[in-house]
Please model this.
Amino acid sequence: MQAIALKKSQFFWHLAVFVLLAGQLSAQGIVSAGMNPIRRADSLFATGATAEAIPIYETAMATGQPATDAMLLKLAFAHEQLADVPKLLYYLEVYFDRHPSEAVLRKMNDIARANGLSGYETDDLNYFYLFYKQYGQYLVLLLLILGGYVTWVIVAKSWRNEATPTSQKWVTLFYLLGVWLFINLPEGYKSGIISRDRVLLRSAPSGAAPVVDVVGRGHKVNILGSQDIWLRVFWNNKLYYLRKDQVWII
Model:
């Protein structure tokens, strides 16, 4: 795998705080066979044993332990140390989904470009998603207030037996439909990172369907639905199908 080419940024300064905290826990002698697995992983991380800490964190999350922001940042840093770019990007993506910011978006783009990976571009789609996550609730509230006011005016005019032009009714209807789409479509948006080498993209949700492309581990795809064990993904401006177990869904 290619070496990771990362610029220094304030993003990973958070890790210094977590390392110090975990170091204090380790210094107090809390490492024991029966201790909380997260504390044990924190102590291993503090001593630099990041490779040993990774499976403990990931096993805990797989068994229902909520992933804290600290755990996500530690896992991202640990996989950086192991030069595992796809896993590094995966945990940054999960962190970005919780705390959307342009700095994190650009950081992922820089990492992906340095390692020849696609899907992390700072394009219109990713910026729209960033904008929606940051300001969507306020914009939706404004649009709903405006739509409610226009609807109330039309209803009030009908009560007074005043005619409302048909064109205005259609405009109002399409406006409300647009607001509904704005509210629901981004929430249904999902993305995933290819988790295996040489994943086959097929033209239909079937193992017998023709293979139309092959994608390597670490590339990011947009998910537009599923069917049985198959995901419908958008890749290079086309729709393909791949197996669910070949993707880490964000």
